[in-house]
Design goal:
Layout lengths: L5 E6 L6 H11 L6 E6 L4 H7 L10 E3 L8 H14 L3 E5 L1 H13 L4 E6 L8 H14 L2 E4 L2 H10 L5 E3 L14 H8 L6 E6 L8 H8 L6 E6 L5 H10 L6 E5 L4 H6 L3 E4 L9 H7 L4 E4 L14 E3 L4 H13 L7 H7 L2 H11 L6
Parallel strand pairs: 1-2, 1-4, 2-3, 4-5, 5-6, 6-7, 8-9, 8-11, 9-10, 11-12, 12-13
Helix pairs in contact: 3-4, 4-5, 8-12, 11-13
Amino acid sequence: MMQGTTTIHVVQHLSPGGLEALALNMLQFSSPTNQVMIVSLEGNKEAAIKQWPRLAQVEKQLIFLNKPSGYSLNTLSKLYQLFVMLKPNVVHTHHIGPILYGSIAARLANVKHRIHTEHDAWHLSNPKHRFLQDLALKLGKPRLVADASLVRDQIKQYFTHQSVTVIKNGIDSASFKPGSQILARQSLGLATSPKFIGTAGRLEQVKGHDILINALCFLPNNIQLVIAGDGSQREALQQQARQLGLNHRVTFLGLVNDMPKFYQSLDLFCLPSRSEGFPLSTLEAQSCGIATVATDVGATKETLCPKTGQLAPAENPKLLSKALRKALSSAYQESPREFIVKNNDIRNMVLAYEALTEEKCA
């Protein structure tokens, strides 16, 4: 890897989410000799930091273009001028909006290495998206990366001429590690005696929290549910728990600052989503040594330890409860942490991306 490399990641917006957290991790875990920045097409720095305080730690490495809605030639021009001024060695785009602007502007600015990571491919079923992405791939000519084998296979269905490298997402396994369950529960204000199933994520319909609450009806009374996160569905989910007579068994923690402590407090983690790309929460929970049950959507299967993970069909509370019951009653001989450290540590992921820049880009 060349010394003093400058890498610019281009994302659509910087608000709490898996893709955005991944870009931040890539910034923070890059080689010390490299300079890494993130360009957000939408929004402004002040509002973004207010919504996501973590950004304040790296605010000097963030640039916001405040792109208006719709296609913006001015945004393409701004990116081109930025790349000409900063002379990055690598421009790395994430998702369809950034590839339309970032890859094309990078090629116009003669950026040597252009990388595009596809974090999910469901949007390519839309003919307009497929046309625009195909156009961006042809004009920008980036090195194409998929964050999961499933995503690679989906890309190849639509873009048969493309060579696709798989680099799976990673998390900081040094931060997400096993710890005392009792101390973790005390720090979160949770009781020490019940068995806790936990879930984490935005409280939105796509995340399937309502399905998990329904599944709780089929589990013994000593099993409780604790939910980390906030969103537009919080009030509806609280009402659902009350109507089912489960309000005493469901705890809403809201946004949790110390997520390792959250995972450490659990007996089991569950991701009940209706749709996913390559989720990070299942990696984080397992890195903390917590066995995980997840619905079989997107590339979630690829995130689960094959010896301790359990899959369940989406949208089916009864079958989800069956998988949860099985996982809670199992005596696992191995920790899922070993699988995550080996396959999904952020440091190895960053090194894999850095290795791509040793290869010539068109």
